[in-house]
TrEMBL record, chain A:
InterPro entries: IsoCit/isopropylmalate_DH_CS, Isocitrate_DH_NAD, IsoPropMal-DH-like_dom. It comes from Sparus aurata (Gilthead sea bream). Its cofactor is Mn(2+); Mg(2+). Keywords: ATP-binding, Magnesium, Manganese, Metal-binding, Mitochondrion, Nucleotide-binding, Transit peptide, Tricarboxylic acid cycle. Coiled coil: none annotated. One of its GO terms (biological process) is tricarboxylic acid cycle. This is Isocitrate dehydrogenase [NAD] subunit, mitochondrial. PANTHER family: DECARBOXYLATING DEHYDROGENASES-ISOCITRATE, ISOPROPYLMALATE, TARTRATE, ISOCITRATE DEHYDROGENASE [NAD] SUBUNIT, MITOCHONDRIAL. The gene is IDH3G. The keyword Nucleotide-binding applies. Residues 40-364 form the Isopropylmalate dehydrogenase-like domain. Belongs to the isocitrate and isopropylmalate dehydrogenases family. It holds the Pfam family Iso_dh. One of its GO terms (molecular function) is oxidoreductase activity, acting on the CH-OH group of donors, NAD or NADP as acceptor. GO terms for cellular component: mitochondrion.
UniProtKB/TrEMBL annotation, chain B:
The keyword Transit peptide applies. It comes from Sparus aurata. It is found in: Mitochondrion. Its main location: mitochondrion. It comes from the Eukaryota. Heterooligomer of subunits alpha (IDH3A), beta (IDH3B), and gamma (IDH3G) in the apparent ratio of 2:1:1. The heterodimer containing one IDH3A and one IDH3B subunit and the heterodimer containing one IDH3A and one IDH3G subunit assemble into a heterotetramer (which contains two subunits of IDH3A, one of IDH3B and one of IDH3G) and further into the heterooctamer. This is Isocitrate dehydrogenase [NAD] subunit, mitochondrial. GO terms for molecular function: isocitrate dehydrogenase (NAD+) activity; magnesium ion binding; NAD binding. Belongs to the isocitrate and isopropylmalate dehydrogenases family. The gene is IDH3A. Its cofactor is Mg(2+); Mn(2+). SUPFAM superfamilies: Isocitrate/Isopropylmalate dehydrogenase-like.
């Protein structure tokens, strides 16, 4: 979805001079960095199952001869200093794209220790979290034919981390909703719907209770909706949304919402299509893009057991390849992953099977090899 | 020595005094319950419940009251004083759906009731109904939601044009109260574990405080297992395998979303009971669906939600025998599939459904 974060490049100086007095927009976007024809991508392994999945991604990319080099930046979640995460942020600024595992947040530490993932998202202004949940063939779920795109505001709302205790025993946590960010995310949602040919956008809110905050969000969505007449817009209260999702999820198309409801709805949808091991997630900003698993789990309990499902991380790496315009590689790997998913005997524990991570990755590599393009020998 | 002369009286004594007498005692203690029929389909489903309770010979006497917002001295909105007095006297209430008129100038009736009686805990047991098929079977969990503060404090400001701030309030006292209630409920209803649902990795201080209070309550109730889980993990696992959850306790917003999610798992708000526990021993049990004005008065409503809430009320009052009877009759009728209201996929009228349940209850006596 690079079209959404980059405007068409200006082709001549004349065009630039003609348009320079108009509303300032980004008229020139440098293409993704390519040194010697190869892209450099920041890789943050994270905690839990992150490192092993990152290793599998590199293995697969090396096998498929994908022209991507990974710059690995480790973030130690147990350290109180923010140097590690600042290094990671600088690396992402340098490279423009990143693939990341989840960094654990120990919530027993004092409030001055901010969540590293949250810090990364807000500093790089990755305002849109996009999660595309679709029913995959070969995965048995209670509901079929789900195809929902969830667009979640990623930087403000309840995740502003602004808390204080004025009176002992009374804690206030601020939820901030701004007009600019709400307009921005609504615009992103409608552009994404238009670009992918989707017909309906649903805004999820709780404006009957939080009249000003979610009311502002809803107003912004309505304002943006008026500029896209071919896309129908409706809104739904978040508790009704979750009820509808577990009874009839097929009714939803694109959903846009503030941060916390996005968390709930995206996890519900991920559960509906088969679990956290299957859905990739993408965080897009104006200048940067970071890809990760959709539900951002650390998977501490299954770390290093070779039982984690690599599908989510590998599909996230395909999204990354699409972002840097290596579409051929992306489709090749995606096809191989989908053909592996249909084989029930290779399902990992989260899908009810007994396959191991390495078996799944091996099968994907076999599938890639059999489709023809040059690969390294197995 | 021949003890036979004493055997029969001894047995009779045992039967009468240890098993039957408690029932006799209960029968003589008829309890009065405030009934608020509500709007829309409220009156017809309340009548249905009253009929079923009569058939089951439950020791309940109903005191009907109407709740419409009136403006008291000083312009403050409040519920009618006779309703308040009735509830304070009886302590137990059963409420049908109330409509919230838009732009009436007064807050919603549910909010007024909550404030008047300090209803701090909203309890929603979600049990799969055998006869009503949903993609999820074997759901058996209870959501306990803090009902007075949290994200729904209603404190919002416009900081500058285009920037709005909404305040989520978490207090030590309210968190402690709800945590204690959750463990008491688990203990009284033989539930094995309590899970606190939070988002303390992001909202460190507020959910951190809530979590601390839950941990303290867990220390005081060591016989109930305590776990903590992030909100997103709960949502993820709930739609994949709801059988792993037992009692869930959480602040207001998460509770709102999760309790409706669980209601969706068992078939929607039309079949979900709910109870609100307040300070001073007040408890109001209600059906959480809407007033359904389009089918009001047409004998099409489904009284299941209100009936199951009334059963919850019986359990709260300790009348487990009657509760079991009525609940079994209700579930059997739904499972039978012969008389079902329209929302459950059948064609029967509300009165037919009610009559079927009454018949079953009478047969059980």
């Amino acid at each position: 979805m690079t079209f959404l974060t980059q405007n068409p490049t200006v082709t001549s100086l004349w065009e630039f001079l003609k348009n320079k007095d108009q509303i300032p927009q980004r008229v020139f976007t440098p293409p993704p960095a390519r040194y010697g024809g190869r892209h450099t991508v920041t890789l943050i392994p994270g905690d839990g199952i992150g490192p092993e999945l990152a290793h599998h991604v590199r293995e697969l990319f090396r096998f498929c001869c994908v022209p991507v080099d990974f710059e690995v930046v480790n973030v130690d979640s147990s350290m109180a200093s923010e140097d590690d995460i600042n290094n990671a942020i600088m690396a992402i600024r340098r490279n423009g794209v990143a693939l990341k595992g989840n960094i654990e947040t120990n919530h027993n530490l004092p409030p001055s220790y901010k969540s590293r993932n949250s810090l990364l998202r807000t500093t790089l202004d990755l305002y849109a979290n996009v999660m595309h949940c679709q029913s995959l063939p070969g995965v048995r779920t209670r509901h079929k034919n789900i195809d929902i795109m969830i667009i979640r505001e990623n930087t403000e709302g309840e995740y502003s981390s602004l808390e204080h205790e004025n009176v002992p025993g009374v804690v206030e946590c601020l939820k901030i909703i701004t007009k600019t960010k709400s307009l921005r995310i609504a615009d992103y949602a409608f552009r994404a719907a238009r670009a992918t040919g989707r017909r309906r956008v649903t805004a999820v809110h709780k404006a009957n209770i939080m009249k000003l905050a979610d009311g502002l969000f809803l107003e912004c969505c309505k304002e943006v909706a008026s500029g896209y007449p071919e896309i129908s817009f409706d809104s739904m209260i978040v508790d009704n949304t979750t009820m509808q999702l577990v009874s009839r999820p097929q009714q939803f198309d694109v959903m846009v919402m503030p941060n916390l409801y996005g968390n709930v709805v995206s996890n519900v949808c991920a559960g509906l299509v088969g679990g956290p091991g299957l859905v990739p997630g993408a965080n897009y900003g104006e200048d940067y893009a970071v890809f990760e698993t959709g539900t951002r789990n650390t998977g501490k309990s299954i770390a290093n057991h070779n039982t984690a499902n690599p599908t989510a991380m590998l599909l996230a790496s395909c999204l990354l390849l699409d972002h840097v315009k290596l579409h051929a590689y992306a489709s090749m790997i995606r096809r191989a992953i989908l053909s592996t998913i249909t084989e029930t005997r290779l399902h990992t524990a989260d899908l009810g099977g007994q396959g191991s991570t390495s078996e799944v990755v091996q099968s994907i590599m076999n599938a890639v090899q059999s489709t023809g393009p040059q690969t390294l020998s197995i | 020595i021949w003890y036979g002369h004493f055997l029969l009286p001894y047995l009779l004594n045992q039967i009468l005094f240890s098993i039957a007498l408690p029932q006799f005692l209960q029968l003589s203690l008829i309890q009065t319950v405030t009934l608020i029929p509500g709007d829309g389909i409220g009156p017809e489903i309340s009548t249905a419940v009253m009929k079923i309770f009569e058939a089951a010979e439950a020791p309940i006497q109903w005191e009907e009251r109407n709740v419409t917002a009136i403006q008291g001295p000083g312009g403050k909105w409040m519920i009618p004083p006779d309703a308040k007095e009735s509830m304070d006297r009886n302590k137990i209430g059963l409420k049908g759906p109330l409509k919230t008129p838009i732009a009436a100038g007064h807050p919603s009736m549910n909010l007024l009731l909550r404030k008047t009686f300090d209803l701090y805990a909203n309890v929603r047991p979600c049990v799969s109904i055998e006869g009503y098929k949903t993609p999820y079977s074997d759901v058996n969990l209870v959501t306990i939601r803090e009902n007075t503060e949290g994200e729904y404090s209603g404190i919002e400001h416009v900081i500058v044009d285009g920037v709005v701030q909404s305040i989520k309030l978490i207090t030590e006292q309210a968190s402690q109260r709800i945590a204690d209630y959750a463990f008491e409920y688990a203990r009284n209803n033989q539930r094995a574990s309590v899970t606190a649902v939070h988002k303390a990795n992001i909202m460190r201080m507020s959910d951190g405080l809530f979590l601390r209070k839950c941990r303290e309550a867990a220390e005081k109730h060591k016989d109930v297992k305590f776990t903590e889980m992030y909100l997103d993990t709960v949502c993820l696992n709930m739609v994949q395998d709801p059988t792993q959850f037992d009692v869930l306790v959480m602040p207001n917003l998460y509770g709102d979303i999760l309790s409706d999610l669980c209601a969706g798992l068992i078939g929607g708000l039309g079949v979900t009971p709910s109870g609100n526990i307040g300070a001073n021993g007040v408890a109001i049990f209600e059906s959480v669906h809407g007033t359904a004005p389009d089918i009001a008065g047409k004998d099409m409503a489904n009284p299941t939600a209100l009936l199951l809430s009334a059963v919850m009320m019986l359990r709260h009052m300790g009348l487990h025998g009657h509760a079991k009877k009525i609940e079994a009759a209700c579930f059997d009728t739904i499972r039978d599939e012969k008389v079902r209201t329209k929302d459950l996929g059948g064609n029967s009228k509300c009165s037919e459904f009610t009559e079927a349940i009454c018949q079953r209850v009478r047969d059980m006596q």
